[in-house]
Design a protein that fits this description.
Elements (H helix, E strand, L loop, with lengths): L5 H10 L22 E6 L2 E5 L2 E16 L2 E12 H4 L3
Antiparallel strand pairs: 1-3, 2-3, 3-4
Length: 89
Amino acid sequence: MADVGISDRLCFTVWSDPGAGLSPFDGTDAAVAAPGELEIELQPAGRLRESGTTSLIAPATVVNYGFSEGWEAVFEGQGKLPCHLVLPA
């Protein structure tokens, strides 16, 4: 593999496109609720794959309450059914 010099690294850094951020949040946002603000986030149905099995998530609900600047209380719940109970084989 060719050695990449400092000038090459600088060139890539200066002329590269801005990267799209990857949000680790699935079904919710990354923002914090403002003080006194109540947010309710609903996901009617979704799919969850873990350990080689697929499950139906329905519904998923997140309730956020901003109680101080930069701080919120989060209440989260979801229903989970294995897909073999929902979809015929």
